Amino acid sequence: MPVPAKSKLYDRAYFDKWYRDDNHRVISRDVLSRKVAMAVAMAEHYLGRPIRNVLDVGCGEGAWHAPLHALRPDAHYLGLDASEYAISRWGRSRNLRLATFGQLAELRFDQRFDLIVCADVMHYLGRGELLRGLPGIVDQLEGLAYIEVYTSKDKLIGDLEGFKRRSPQWYRQAFAEAALLSVGSMGWVGPRQAPWITAMEAAG
Q: Mapping DSSP to helix (H, G, I), strand (E, B) and coil, where does residue 77 land?
């Protein structure tokens, strides 16, 4: 009789290992700060104004919260994650809520988001959940979506447990079918911004 696959736990041990242990973590605070600054600058470029709110999908412990607050202290930050540990530990102080990626198909908020972040998440999701939740990102997007996703073509280190080795073409097709347009550097705009994107801005 086959043994059921062990469910991956995003518990304290996981976050301690991949976010704080110098022998395992693959991104420093400086690198994260530069990444946040780039995403904010891109969103504000396409919006033509400072960002007012941010939705962080698959936020983990809310690592984007502090660097975002340092750049835009008045911007409202909301993080969503399926880790019960992360929400119980950081939910109140960093405004994190319990939700899976797939639940974006039904979840809606009072206003759309100037910046939606989904960093280092989609390549761990099953195909069904990814395609189910993706339209929820597009529907709630006002400015820019920063979608950090890695593919079968990338050389990777770090947490490879459960990594889905999909091709770049697979993601591009899925994003295009969801009405997302690439503007480079893992930035994507939806139907509200796409009409203003020039031919040379659009990546590919």
A: strand
For 194-203, the pLDDT digits (tens) are: 999 999 999 7
DSSP annotation of 17:
I
Residue ranges per domain, the chain?
14-181+190-196
Tens of pLDDT, residue by residue over 98-145, are 999 999 999 999 999 999 999 999 999 999 999 999 999 999 999 999
DSSP labels for 111-173?
S-EEEEEEES-GGGS-HHHHHHHHHHHHHTEEEEEEEE---TTS---S--TT-----HHHHHH
Tokens, residue 194: 């796409």
- DSSP assignment of 43-76: HHHHHTS---EEEEET-TTTTTHHHHHHH-TTSE
CA dihedral (77, 40, 194, 134) in degrees, to 10, reads: -40
Element housing 98 (H / E) = strand 96-98
Residue 81's region, left for phi above 0, alpha for psi from -120 to 50, else beta, is beta
Tell me the pTM. Answer: 0.90
CA 145 to chain CA centroid, Å, is 8
